[in-house]
Structure prediction request, 533 residues.
Amino acid sequence: LLLLLSACRKASIESELASITDAQNLLSKDQINSCIADILKVENDFRWADASAQVVWSALTHSGNTLSIGYKPKGWTNEEVDAEMHTINLQSPEWQRAKEEILQLVWEEEMKNNPNLKIEKLAIYQQNHLPVVCIPSYNLSTIEKLRTSELVRYAEPMSYKPFYNEHKGNQLQSGLDGLGCNRANPYGGVLVDSVDYKLVYPNSKMSWNYSYHNIPEAWKISTGKGIRVMVIDTGCSLNQENLQSSFNQGESIGRNVEHLVTLRDVIDYYPGAFYQYRGTLIGRKHAVRDSPKAPGDPCGHGTMMAGVVAAPRGTDGNACGVAYNCDLVTIKAAEDVLIHTDSEILSVIDAFNLAASRTDIKIISMSMGMPFHESMLADAIKKTANRGKLIFCAAGTTADSFTMTKQWGVIFPASMPEVLAITGIKNNLREACDVCHEGSQVDFVAVMQQSNKKFLSLTLATSGDIPAVDGGSSVATAMMAGMAAIVWSKYPKKSAQKILEILKKSSNNRYKNSNWGSGVLDVYKAVNFDTTF
Prediction:
């Protein structure tokens, strides 16, 4: 039976691959990647819903055969599910019935090749917080049946890893482990007073770029007191005392810090209670073969981002954070800044579910991402945003080892409307930083690179009192989260939406750059805003 399929786009992109003559003919990774690359070039976005069942099935086969299925009861629209994600009772009869019918559909299709398959063994990653099931799938017919069901919101392969390699045309590559990990070593050069930093009382280095947002002026009014910021990243160094035992020192007093871990080695995942590791909440219980990752931050990226947000204004000569009196929660949810394994996807989802469940967490900062939309993670983010949080995510940073091109624009999840996308710019206020992504989905920009010598922003190293230096949209995102904490601390009774209005009305896009959103925030203006509206 000849099947004429569009292997890339169901409607608008029809010429990516020739006709497929065998419905069970597995597409190569090069064919799949070519489709993804071409769609990204046209639309600056890619969703598996835009691909044919053949492409989805082929990608699934090349990436471990784990399929995530977003479900809904009959009569619900996708838009209604998104709006009610934070109130859905998954244990209610209608939601339980929808889940059972989906599992029955999958079981009947997968039984054709595996007669001994037990339906109770289908859901391999139990998800009790979102309307999603994750199942092993091997048949193209399963994908096709799911796509015609009114109970299905999406059906996507987990862990397929394509990345653009600009040196090889449209070829894509994976294997970018360690992306963004510079180990957060202390700066090896000479830091120049009044150029690279300004020494502030009692003995702390304020990074040179803070003045471009009027942060030191805003500090006279608000320093983030009473606002808890969650940084979802690669963890926090156990050896950086300014995020551990010396979190309270100098002008930073009476606040608290938590270091949590959701990252795990996933073989079989079973839900369970969070448990403690040396007094620190670090994850969920897993199957015997699983071992949650240890606390700490071998990558260094998470330590630097936590430092930008909340490092103390102390007495030891180290760098101070933007909101040096805010409370801090760090989450170790990935090994580097690229979310690309099913373990990391699930771990980041756990982090957002935790944020959604805690009323004390107001702001989430995540300087990590992936090239295109992942619907299960999007569900967790929508749920968290619906609970009244401000979520800041990095628009994307292109490094030498990260071959995805800047022209692809804002990465996921910063590309989501529920998220505030942040990128970095130079201090001439005209150019994006050398490695920063831009796009129409960007909401704010932050100054983090000196135009003349390309010097970046000061933050904490993994140990010691000599600051580290880092940049990109990662630092810009952490800066914006810290500035939002300063503003929310001034107006603690305001909603997230009202705080966002203040942030937007206190920002200036001087050159009307359509890729910079509201532009550069003036925090001093924001903490003096007329709040009668």
